[in-house]
Amino acid sequence: MTSRTYSCAIVGTGAIAGAHAEAITDQAGRSRLVGAVDLDPGRAAAFAAKWDVPTYPGLADLLDAQRPDVVHLCTPPGTHLALALECLAAGAVPVVEKPPVLSLADLDRLRAAEAEAGVPVATVFQHRFGSGAVRLRRLVAEGAFGRPLLASANTLWFRDDEYFAVPWRGRWDTEGGGPTMGHGIHQFDLLLSILGPWTEVTAIAARQARPTDTEDVSAALVRFACGAVATVVNSLVSPRQTSRLRFDFERVTVDLEHLYGYTDAHWRVTEAPTAPGAAAAWETGPRDTPSGHTAQFAAVLDALDTGATPPVSTADTRMTVEFVAALYASAFTRRTVAQGEIGEGDPFYTGMAGTGAPWSA
Question: What's domain 6-126+294-307's superfamily in CATH?
Fold first, then answer.
């Protein structure tokens, strides 16, 4: 393994940028923060003072001045594609916050640019990297708990009307969707990383209470290539907030309940009455790594050290973004949508609103 110190920059210094700055500075000398960009001078100045880094008026200025190895994109979703393309052209690895782009077409454009530049792109899906998720993926691959039969991923959050006063929120053209695209995506991305490829989706979406163009609630029934079936529910109207995943295998049930991040303490394993001792496998493997940006960025640096593709790759990301597109397509056309069905020429390929949300009429 070749180890080096990577120079890193952050574009967009809003709330999530702090998690990225901590992830960069927590890597024991493997990475250093060299600059930041924000269109708001006051916010940029506050970030610069806290993290002791220079700020720049635009990404081009930062790329020219610092030549960073890695650029963390923490801006609103509608800006991600153009900024990531600019990073790739400069030879910098983009680490892109979720959702990485607004459509499948945008993701395919990003993947083509990635291949042409020979520079990898990583999407931030930090819930994949807590030790509980790492352990569960290994145990599923080993067959320790038997076949996966049933699962659920519920993201039940609450955002009031004031939350959507920020101009880019709640709009198809700038956020790409509602809780399906920007909130529940963490939970069901973790679900997909555990169960593998999905095969079909049947869904509904609704605007129940919030002053948005997008949905504020969605629910889906999902089939997986492994044979499992699952439910996925995403909400921004739920006063008792929770993020919960449940996996029912032949031999055990594995539960995870948290809110915005988990530790090993948030997981629970329950044996089937017919499989005494099956839960013992849970006690093996890595422990005590919480989910979060620090865990994922450490994995990104490990990959860069060895020349491997950093997680989460654009190939992995495509499965998740395609799931989002299929959920909206199913909800708005009232039909089951199969994996691989949405391609060029389909309205849901170029935008998550597709043929238009029913309530927009």
Answer: NAD(P)-binding Rossmann-like Domain (3.40.50.720)
